[in-house]
Amino acid sequence: MATEWGNAQHEEFSAQSPAAVPLGEEGDQLIAAAVAQCAFFPVQAALIASAYERPDMVGVVYFGEQAVQVQHAMDTEYFRLMRAAAAARTRIQKLAGGRCACGAALQIGAGPKVPPQFCSATCATAAGR
Q1: Residue 41 gets which letter from DSSP?
Q2: pTM for the whole thing?
Q3: Is 4 helix (H, G, I), strand (E, B) or coil?
Q4: How many other CB atoms sit within 10 Å of the CB of residue 40?
Q5: 128: alpha, beta or left, given left = phi > 0 and alpha = psi -120 to 50?
Q6: How far apart are CA 29 and CA 10, in angstroms?
Q7: Nearest one of 81, 97, 98, 99 to 39, comparing CA atoms
């Protein structure tokens, strides 16, 4: 879904400027769903690569000022999506009441492979996740 959304946005907006591709609210919703499923990093990478370009290909596809603009847009979107992920994680943890099924306090940085509603990978595995 992330790749399809990024491609659709790229097709619609890149003709004017390849750096002016917005991922918008729909991109944020994909990120929120990815956070809940421990898939943030692959979804973020798919969104950015499909909307702009693969990071390692920017210098090959674009030249000069345009390459700088696209790289800047990608970096800006990368950090914006990181903030959206942090907000989604916090929202999920608030809904969980600050504690997971094992009774431990939820941690902000439990790791990318730990769902935000669990305190650790062991806790998530024990809960059948």
Answers
A1: H
A2: 0.80
A3: helix
A4: 25
A5: left
A6: 18
A7: 81
Residue 47: predicted pLDDT: 94
What's the CA gap between 40 and 84, in Å, rounded? 10
Q: What is the pLDDT of residue 26?
A: 92
How far, CA to CA in Å, does 95 sit from each of 29, 113, 117, 123? 17, 19, 9, 18
Q: Choose between 115 and 72: higher pLDDT.
A: 72
Burial of residue 96 (CB within 10 Å: 0-12, 13-18, 19+) is middle
- pLDDT tens digits along 73-124: 999 999 999 999 989 988 887 887 767 767 777 665 555 667 777 777 777 7
Phi and psi, residue 112, nearest 5°: -70, -20
The pLDDT value given to residue 15: 84
Cα within 13 Å of Cα(88), Cβ side:
22
**DSSP secondary structure code for residue 118 in this structure:** S
SS3 for 64-112 is: HHHHHHHHHHHHHHHHHHHHHHHHHHHHHHHHCCCECCCCCECCCCCCC
Cα–chain-centroid distance for residue 71? Answer: 17
